Amino acid sequence: MRICLIYDHVFPQTIGGAERWMRDLALRLAESGHEVTYLTMRHWQPHEPPSLPNVRVLGVVDAGRVYKEERRTLGPPLAFGFAVWRHLARHGHDYDIVHVASFPYFSVLAAGLARRGHGYRLAIDWHEVWGRAYWRRYAGPITGTVGWLVQRRCIRLAHRAYCMSHMHARRLLAEGYRGEPVVLPGIYAGPVQYSSSDEVDRSLIMYAGRHVREKRIDALVRGFARAQEKRPDLRLELFGDGPDSGRILGLIRELGLGQFVRLEGRRPEDEVASAMTRAACLATASEREGYGLVVVEAAAHGTPSVVVEGPENAATELITDGLNGAIAPSARPDDVAAAILTVVDGGARLRASTAKWFDQNAERLRIERSLELVAGDYEAANPQLASKGASSPSGAVT
Q: Is the full-model pTM beyond 0.90?
């Protein structure tokens, strides 16, 4: 089949669960013999293009400044949406399936509009679905209301919907989706390699992800500082980058934590995995998660996690207190500190139960079953597609 995947970010040029899922989906579909095109923004320098074997990666527009402080800017998503529409208007007949990440929505509207006359099937990944109240809190009363209305328009397009959590599947239905969304079992594609006790640094806490306001890294740093009052040996390593990195660095200096908290920046996957292997605990104070892939990644190394309870945080679906981590009741420093200390003090016992939890839930955590469901949906939507001839993908990056 001829498949077009669309997302304005691409891994590893940008870091996040959605781009890792899209990257892994592209690679597995290509390995299965499908012709795969990935439309995205150009987040790379000409001499450092993304490498996805047997996948044609098209950078349809320059990335520009995607974030301004803690919020996404409007210009780049609009430009990307227009570029997607222009590409599909010209080349939509080249695809049997167009599979789009929902956010930032303009590319979804473009794919829905360009579908007329081409007849491709539309699939949408709903990593998150925001209610009207959250939209207004995120973007203000006017812009937030407009964003919510645009989201609702996308939801009402005829399409196959995929969700990464039950929370967002329920919200999708509540916001007007006319169908039954598919909750994907899991999206983890990495290795399972539990660390031995002598590999673990019992003083090391780590964070991996984007540095943006909704991740609340400042709350994590303040919670770590409170935990260190009781455990002075504790250290924190922050992986990733983003528009909030400068503010976080300022907070670290303000609290006098320069010797104990390190900003590691964006590092290769193997270095992040190595840190997960060594860490006593993965910790995040994120306000909003569509799934929480980093929690699964940590568990695949036997490393328990700390997450924070909240109405927008689907990562709490992945944690059972005392079994594979701890859920802080709020992002207040005392609550985050208590959760960190609980996990660190859990030691070898908690690491063993975390590894056992991953083993028992591997089928719903790993990507294979989700890929089977998506590929099966593609073929079931139009069985004769499987018999169509398809030329070999060029693998070119432009």
A: no
